[in-house]
Amino acid sequence: MARASSKKPRDLPPLDPMPARVDPCLATLVDKPPRGSDWAYEVKWDGYRLAVHIEPGRVRVLTRGGYDWTERFPSIVDDARRLAVQTAILDGEAVVLDEHGRSDFGMLQRALGRLPSAIEAGAIVLFAFDLLYLDGRDLRRQPLRERRRLLAPLVAGREGAIRLSEEVEAGGEEFFRVACAHGLEGIIAKHLEKPYRSGRGDWWQKITCKRRDSFVIVGFEPSTVPGHIGRLLLAARKGGELVYVGGCGTGWSNKLSRELRNLLEGMATKAPAVTLRRKGAVFVDPVLVADVEYRAWTDDGKLRHASFKGIRERADDATVFELS
Question: What sign does the dihedral 166-171-172-173 (CA atoms) show?
């Protein structure tokens, strides 16, 4: 008689190899929420898109562009080790919440330490909204409904650094109206029956209360107030190059204006990253990115009514707006 194997189910080889990295699924911007029972709705979080890879003996945190930022999110890494999994890949958004429970991108930037701040990295929370791999199984072929069913018991009800991004029990149009009334960035609609597909498609849709994108800071114009910023000069990507798209001169406090001026003056260069002649402008190395809210584009390709919302490093170049 053959002897039964002494291996426990978790000791068996994985059914599917764990991918070293997964290109994220990206939402397509639409004007209004889709309708139908096959759609689920979530808050559109205002933070950093991250993938958390949990393996025996290590946890990795990867950005949307594939950069390893594990050391920047110690509280998320520590909490990931406590999850009841052997191996997993969580897809989510890292945020810092304000006193009203809304994600605040500026507070997140301060927690990550680019500007002076009393906000600590431990304040950062990952709202997990998808599960791509679990204990030897690649779940990307499964519909979102099934992936969410497996995700929920791992992170729902937790108060730590990893939490569940809840689906909202409401119609899309009603939820969008309420989200905008409460000062949120917008909502995300996801088709419950679709598998996880890397890249941008209509199976995930975003509906924003205002338009918001990221642009490379290529310089600034000094304010008439000594030591302050008057206007940031911004660029988008096009065909591997940077193209000037205008600037923004609002969105910061007096304190932040001085901090931005000090930060950018330390990056001044005599070689502009874009073709632009502007009297009095100070050009800087294109290593920082501004998160900007705006209403529309002008006919000559410039931002209309742009307002500064936060700053990040350009290392994760995947977030920079690309002109078609």
Answer: negative
Confidence of residue 114 (pLDDT cuts 50, 70, 90): low
Task: Collect all residues with Cβ–Cβ distance below 8 Å to 191 and sequence separation of at least 6.
Answer: 38, 39, 144, 203, 204
Burial 289-319 (b: 16+ CB within 10 A, else e): bbbbbbeeeeeeeebeebbbbbbbeeebeeb
Active site residue 44: yes
H-run or E-run covering 303:
strand 303-304
Q: Which of 7, 8, 32, 44 is catalytic?
A: 44
Q: Compute the distance between CA of residue 249 and CA of residue 220 in angstroms, rounded to an integer.
A: 10
Asked whether this chain's domains 15-208 and 211-319 adopt the same fold, the reply is no
The one-letter amino acid at 174: E
Question: Could you tell me the two tokens for 208?
Answer: 């924003």
User: In this structure, are residues 221 and 230 in contact, taking their beta carbons and an 8 Å threshold?
Assistant: yes
227: helix, coil or strand?
coil
pTM (two decimals):
0.72
Q: What is the CATH number of domain 15-208?
A: 3.30.470.30
Return the structure tokens found at 159: 């108060």
Report in angstroms the alpha-carbon separations of 282 from 169, 257, 264, 276.
50, 15, 9, 11
Q: What is the pLDDT of residues 30-65, one digit of tens each?
A: 989 999 999 999 999 989 999 999 999 999 999 999
Query: What is the CATH topology of the domain spanning 211-319?
Result: OB fold (Dihydrolipoamide Acetyltransferase, E2P) (2.40.50)
Token pair 């008057």 is found at: 230
Band of residue 110 on the pLDDT scale cut at 50, 70, 90: confident
